[in-house]
From TrEMBL:
Keywords: Amino-acid transport, Cell inner membrane, Cell membrane, Membrane, Transmembrane, Transmembrane helix, Transport. Residues 18-303 form the Amino acid permease/ SLC12A domain. This is Aromatic amino acid transport protein AroP. Permease that is involved in the active transport across the cytoplasmic membrane of all three aromatic amino acids, phenylalanine, tyrosine and tryptophan. It is found in: Cell inner membrane. It holds the Pfam family AA_permease. It catalyses: L-tryptophan(in) + H(+)(in) = L-tryptophan(out) + H(+)(out); L-tyrosine(in) + H(+)(in) = L-tyrosine(out) + H(+)(out); L-phenylalanine(in) + H(+)(in) = L-phenylalanine(out) + H(+)(out). InterPro entries: AA-permease/SLC12A_dom, Amino_acid_permease_CS. GO terms for cellular component: plasma membrane. It is a multi-pass membrane protein. It comes from the Bacteria.
Amino acid sequence: MEGQQHGDRLKRGLKNRHIQLIALGGAIGTGLFLGSASVIQNAGPGIILGYAIAGFIAFLIMRQLGEMVVEEPVAGSFSHFAYKYWGGFAGFASGWNYWVLYVLVAMAELTAVGKYVQFWWPEIPTWVSAAVFFIAINAINLTNVKVFGEMEFWFAIIKVVAVVAMILFGGWLLFSGNGGPQATVRNLWEQGGFLPHGFTGLVMMMAIIMFSFGGLELVGITAAEADNPEQSIPKATNQVIYRILIFYVGSLAVLLSLLPWSRVTADTSPFVLIFHELGDTFVANALNIVVLTAALSVYNSCVLLQQSDAVRSGPAG
């Protein structure tokens, strides 16, 4: 089998800590930090319900993928299984579709990087920042999978610690009264209602919400390069639901309680904007570093997927 042949050539260099943090980091990216802004504008606080629904769907998909890759931890992941059980065309189509998807995602992440840099230096063109990080990340990834694993490990730690700290700090601002008079949980239903544009607004935004969960499947993609996939993969996939509840639902509930949803703008990360609006420039700058790290993390994953046999095994079908 082609996917098996590719899997035999892959080096198992990812340890359990890499797999767990790759799974965790895959759930926290630009879709949450920047993409959620446009969703908030159209769905209001209903974005919380949208992420809960989409998160449950993502959890079911990850459970199914996790069972398959534990049984057969080969390169290619879902494209390999499509080839094996549905035929050559299905494997070919899913592999190339996934490759093209991540080319587009990579460009979106580099664009986001440029936007984040402009928070500090508005005079720097987006393409300049994108080009600098394009060269840097690609140069680093020309080494081996262990470098990718280490980069994702530390990128994920930064994102996780920052989001947890933001939730705790935001909760303190909310319940201590230090967030100002506009900081109240009533913002979730008093500013035009929980669904200010009705269910239509939420349904129209579900595609963007689902996009936010792109990256979770990295656990399956990296299975062939994991030291002990029988233990690390089930643990990573089973914890997806808790990560979604904490990092998506929890963080958005806190943010939208601190500031009315109507004051969120589409061209700035709501995480940065809210603390900037509250006058806390230190936290706003710190969070901008975090969202920049998140974009680089996703781009780092894109580079691995585009250059690895795990993606090429589907088209080779």
